[in-house]
From TrEMBL:
It comes from Streptomyces lavendulocolor. Pfam families: GntR. This is GntR family transcriptional regulator. Keywords: DNA-binding, Transcription, Transcription regulation. InterPro entries: Bact_HTH_transcr_reg, Chorismate_lyase_/UTRA_dom_sf, Tscrpt_reg_HTH_GntR, WH-like_DNA-bd_sf, WH_DNA-bd_sf. It comes from the Bacteria. Residues 8-76 form the HTH gntR-type domain.
């Protein structure tokens, strides 16, 4: 998962520009796109590059072609998928707002998980946030997030360190995720991330937090976000069965 335009094919960058315009309402659902010459001029790109991006958008279900009409934006364009670095609360759900509620905001020493994924030293002090995400009053996910140690952040991503300090003493800390703070502080900073997805059961403690029986099936997502080669955030997100869906959009 990459949030920077660096090292990406120009057609991919163009694809994402058009997707952003669709989701921003520049080309609303059901509308017809301008002609190729006009759209190429609006975007400042060549027609061959535009045509390739439009074909990819068509393959991914964002556009359709109607004889005599032209390219039309899908009535319900697919939302961005998990290959984009976005806070989980922006991805899950089916249009209903997802609220973040803080369960714990603390500083702790490394666990096996953070020692492995954040390469944290034995006595490092790591910020830890545990949050419940709810949609329509129903628990949709349980998130546990850890930031790298302060000295690591000051070198790798001082803006993230300052953003965490700023939000720590405000009410926003109770209703936002750590990943939301990171993405908000990363304009111009190339981030990369790796996620793994496994099937599991919620278990007793997490079941109580999610309001589900301990044997409820769940999807567990492990996520590590890096600046260059340095991990700055590690997270575990648990989504129980029956909760809001997490879209996964794949493209080549």
């Amino acid at each position: 998962m990459v949030s920077s335009a660096e090292q990406r094919r120009p057609v991919v960058v163009l694809y994402e520009r058009i997707v952003d315009a669709i989701h921003a309402g520049t080309y609303p659902p059901g509308s017809t796109l301008p002609s190729e010459p006009k759209l190429a001029a609006e975007l400042g790109v060549s027609r061959p590059a535009l045509r390739e991006a439009l074909l990819l958008l068509q393959e991914d279900g964002l556009l359709s072609v109607r004889r005599g009409v032209g390219r039309t934006v899908a009535d319900r364009p697919p939302r961005r998928g998990f290959e984009h670095i976005q806070p989980l609360e922006e991805l899950i759900g089916a249009g209903a707002p997802v609220r973040v509620r803080a369960l714990l905001r603390a500083v702790e020493e490394p666990t096996d998980f953070t020692a492995q994924h954040l390469l944290a030293a034995a006595r490092a002090r790591l910020r830890f946030w545990e949050s419940l995400l709810a949609a329509d009053g129903t628990a949709a996910a349980l998130s546990q997030e850890w930031a790298a140690a302060e000295d690591v952040l000051e070198t790798a991503h001082p803006g993230f360190a300052r953003a965490l300090d700023a939000v720590a003493g405000s009410p926003d800390a109770a209703r936002t995720s750590m990943l939301a703070v990171l993405t908000g502080a990363s304009r111009g900073v190339p981030l990369s991330a790796h996620s793994s997805v496994t099937a599991t059961l919620v278990g007793q403690r997490r079941g109580e937090q999610l309001g589900r029986p301990a044997d409820t099936p769940a999807v567990l997502i492990t996520q590590v976000v890096r600046v260059g080669d340095v991990p700055v955030l590690a997270a575990k997100h648990m989504l129980p069965t029956g909760a809001a869906a997490l879209p996964v959009l794949q493209s080549n």
